[in-house]
Amino acid sequence: MMCAWELEKAIRREGQASIAAFIAEPIVAAAGGGLTPPPEYFPIIREICDRYDVLMIMDEVITGFGRTGKNFGIDHWGVTPDIICTGKGMSSGYSPLGAAIAHDRIYQEFQKSSKGFVHGYTYGGNPLSCAVGIAVLEYIEKNELIRKVEKLSTHFFNKGEELAGLDIVGEVRGKGFFMGLEFVKDRTTNKPFAPEMNVSKKIADIAFSKGLVTGAGKGGIDGILGEHIVLAPPFICTKSELDEIIDIMRESIVEFQNSL
Description:
Elements: H1 2-14, E1 21-24, H2 41-52, E2 55-60, E3 83-86, E4 99-102, H3 104-112, H4 127-142, H5 145-160, E5 169-175, E6 178-183, H6 199-209, E7 215-218, E8 227-231, H7 239-259
Parallel strand pairs: 1-2, 2-3
Antiparallel strand pairs: 3-4, 5-6, 6-8, 7-8
């Protein structure tokens, strides 16, 4: 929670007129391995942004379009941002597609401007990408995949808690079908591994050899220290497939532990 109140300190320190926006991922993805703030965090951020007339921008490139079991990740905190930047799940990777979604109060400022809003670029409105995006979103809606993710996320994380008991797993975190695993050298102190050990990459390589694709990352603490892996299963996964993901992950971590 200190991080939330740090925003107000930064605004007052730098001067309100010099701060345009606060930008964050609802759940820190690649950089933080599923780092998930407490329930009070984003409501406090929203209140501070409103009080100092600072835009609240959410990076939903990874967490948008159902990944966390909600339409957008920020929906878990019950606040409305001013702008959402999104992509990835919007077209499921079949064709590059991204978007900026602006609140009416932002859009109206451009409407009032006599200069207009010049935002036409070479690949803007690409017909192939837009057609793919429509097809993907229609499939998600028709098959109620976001509701499915929300429903199965409890099972996924209950199963994932089995990993929390392993010697080098410091935390299991995230929401929906987005799970982060933090690896630590000492669970008592949460002391991280030395970066040159490449712990997350080695575990990811073991998992890959067993048929599981993961997202390995490091530097989540200060850009250097911190090892993590993220698991982001397809929305169409069944309970048994989610169980298989966790089972392979456990086998991979144990195999790495035994090599130390």
